Amino acid sequence: MTLLRSWVASANSGTTDFPLNNLPYGVFDAGAGPRMGVAIGDQILDLAAVDHRLDPELFAHPSWNAVMAAGPKVWAALRARLTELLSDEAHRASVEPHLLPQAGAAMLMPFTVTEYTDFYAGKNHAVNVGTMFRGAENALPPNWLSIPIGYNGRASSVVVSGTPVPRPWGQVKGPDEALPRLAPSARFDLELEMGAIVGQPSTGMVSVAEADAMIFGYVLLNDWSARDIQAWEYQPLGPFQSKATATTISPWIVTTAALEPFRVSTPDRERPLLPYLREPGPMLYDIALEVGLAPEGGAETVISRTNYREMYYSAAQQLAHHTSSGCAMRVGDLLGSGTISGTRPDSRGSLLELSWGGKEPLTLDTGETRTFLQDGDRLTLRGAAEGPGYRIGFGNCAGQILPAADLPAWAKE
Amino acid sequence: MTLLRSWVASANSGTTDFPLNNLPYGVFDAGAGPRMGVAIGDQILDLAAVDHRLDPELFAHPSWNAVMAAGPKVWAALRARLTELLSDEAHRASVEPHLLPQAGAAMLMPFTVTEYTDFYAGKNHAVNVGTMFRGAENALPPNWLSIPIGYNGRASSVVVSGTPVPRPWGQVKGPDEALPRLAPSARFDLELEMGAIVGQPSTGMVSVAEADAMIFGYVLLNDWSARDIQAWEYQPLGPFQSKATATTISPWIVTTAALEPFRVSTPDRERPLLPYLREPGPMLYDIALEVGLAPEGGAETVISRTNYREMYYSAAQQLAHHTSSGCAMRVGDLLGSGTISGTRPDSRGSLLELSWGGKEPLTLDTGETRTFLQDGDRLTLRGAAEGPGYRIGFGNCAGQILPAADLPAWAKE
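^ Those are the sequences you sent over. The predicted structure of the assembly is below.
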């Protein structure tokens, strides 16, 4: 695959996130209310306005859930038609009036999140966290090499890139304190993840191959995490309020069709998997990822560079495991990959790992240091699959940390 | 409060679950498709057909979410109007044609579950389980007396009473096995709980008093649990597939208005709570509960009798904690109380506790014994608040265990 050329000039730059090869789907508001659109170069094509040849009802509500529910044939037909409309000069006159500059549009949530599940399926992350908390000998839990470990998260917490993230309050207890306190989190962190969007429903157990075909596309995902709240609350039933403040996703759904040339295999298994989790082919993707941190009013430092291919389990494996007990999956379910850390210190996907539990502060390009996030910090995740002469980019997944809200009187001593 | 008399004779029996004092809300199908109804004696009143004096749109879709979203003034107006219609003989001629016998109606899900959260807030249950797994000295986790411990469950798993429950497959590993196996759960269990239904949304932290006012009503809830799957999967991020097969709720939403006379306080605190969790008044309810187990083709044995007042934390406290990190709550969120066990051996709310981890089999009235559930077993939860000459009942919360599905070829070795 090489660059597919469009009559939209900015799509052919080779450096844009959104060449014709990509065609990611979002919901935008350029002043006329929320509408469904596709990104092309530095423009957005208004999908309700073009001759897409599909049921107009699919584009009547500003959310991609109806298109997802319509199934893979509709997904393929829409992509083929958009490719035709945006490549063939013959369509330019009718289509060009429905392009709007991305710079003038606010991006909204691209789909309604039905349920949100977060996994813990990056081995380097699991080993790093396990080493910090349990020592190198017991870093990986006994089940880790057999199960893509996951927990249910909070769908109501998922927000689109650009939404400010207030520092959460929560119960925390220091090791020398007898009783917990209600306090703003002092160890508020990011987690660099990919989010897989379930585009077709299931009941009963599905195979990894079936699961792969159910996935409509991917977004970047930042699973904001309050480490101090988590440490006190998470035994015995897992993270709860520590993960419920916000989960930020990038605004463009990059489809599996666009990512197809970038499939890669999961790493060799260190322990054989049970048959229901074995992959019939490559189901990860080669997607370069980075994390930028900009203090308020300061320049950004890239604090981590890694790749989605570092995962031990693919989203298809996670989804297959998710159905193993008979759990029904629905259109719009979102699966967080788990934190994506590489093997090098500068490829870790969380400040918990980058600062090694807060013991080794990072020095930013501004000269400031960081263990965990400060008020005013702006975090930006970026990602792209790199092809010959083009890139399949995700756009930004950004959020700025606001100071904790004032505590209501009834919550004070 | 004494029995309120209705012109529907069966509502005045003193033994019905559904006197005029109750007026619980459900969705039924008596052959003409799903409709919203209220139970009165052994009848259901079709709400779309009566002169309720509210916006007909509230009753146009077969789910109680719209009425919940309309807010407490609408809740009060509907209850007052139904009380008038069903007590005053003057309305009998116009209302009676819209009564249908419960015996001829199938009950459907009364509301759309937005998200489902399950708690672990019964102290006797937590002590029993902790003693079995960690010994009596370490039975309660360190955070337990400070936090109503909860985890996010799977909304797609929630089903209405009567839905069969297939035994789940899952990864299990015995203590003497080197590697896990995929197997039907051999330790499939019930959990006797109450479910609180969030009827009003929130953003940001809410007080316990505000949380109490957000709750629309309660149902009985059976959080089916595969103990062997849970044991292998739950560290470090909590229960996942072990709880995702099914969660059964009773079909009638008993409103907080009906339960108002039965408010009781949570027990004395063994450790002071942080101010945000302190209750300004009694927020539990005195609801007698029982669990019946009937082997296939055999008579039922009541295997447990307990009361919702045994909880250490109320649903209002759980909901307030749920919002502490800024987590948004939405109309239709469902909160499971956690397993409700009394202090006596025959008041425990799960087979795990009743059979003490499978070591002390129960003998049923049929002469059979049980540690965990057998295929064909029918479990029924019942509950009622008992007033002078009347009861506020919940109806049945029942489910029968089906054999595990056949394993697909791709899941076999």
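The two ends of chain A are 64 Å apart (CA to CA). Chain A is about 15% helix and 25% strand.

Shout if you want it in another format.
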